[in-house]
Amino acid sequence: MVPEFDRLRDVMIxxxxxxxxxxxxDREGQATVIAKAIAESSRDEVYTVRALRYELERVIGAxxxxxxTQELEFVLADIVELTVAVSRARDEATEAWRGGxxxxxxxxxxxxxxxxxxxxxxxxxxxALRARRQSWFPILDAGVRxxxxxxxxxxxxxxxxxxxxxxxxSVSVARDAQxxxxxxxxxxxxxxxxxxxxxxxxxxxxxxxxxxxxxxALVLLPVAAAGLVAGFLAAFLPGRERAGKIGRFxxxxxxxxxxxxxxxxxxxxxxxxx
Length: 274
Known about the structure:
Order of helices and strands: HHHHHHHHH
Radius of gyration: 36 Å
Mean pLDDT: 75
Distance between the termini: 97 Å
Strand content: under 5%
Helix content: over 70%
Low-confidence stretches: none
Structural class: mainly alpha
């Protein structure tokens, strides 16, 4: 029994009832057939992990076309959790095939015989020929090979998930940097478009409208309109390509020049009070 999982009995009993393999009468054969069947079904679950990876790749591809990064952060968390689970499963598979499905606990000769089948360079051990004549020995060898195949498949999945994690993290960082760049651009354009009216108002002397109250607050409308224009310019014009930068700069320059001309004309029409 696994101490961290108290429902192991509930999982194993239905599996024994649905097990398609014939379980022999001797205890060694029973343990071997059950271990091989579990190893085979575990290897089949790797394809479920692969399907989950495909789905994560599809979700990432769909999110790349969107502007928000919050969903990418959730996907990153899912990839990390799945990578941890796959890595632990691979550790179990590695231990299982290296330990010969723990056959060394009950039959050391069978364990060494199976090890020599995988690596013929290993020295001969006494009792190996007798162990290979056991009826359950081919099943033991098949189970160990299933674990080894599972280890190789999970190694490939782990590598691909780490690459997917790196790629997703890079995209998320790039999105955050782009958002910061957009914010900086909005602040810069807004500073220019709001600062110029304020500067010209100061040059023409704003004492006549001070202090600002409910009756003369309309003088702030040009400043607010300039800020809205700055936001629209930074939000809707293309950004990162060279053509986009040229278009953004040209539009901002035209808007700034227009505001200066309008304010200059308005100032020339006003007769200051003496």
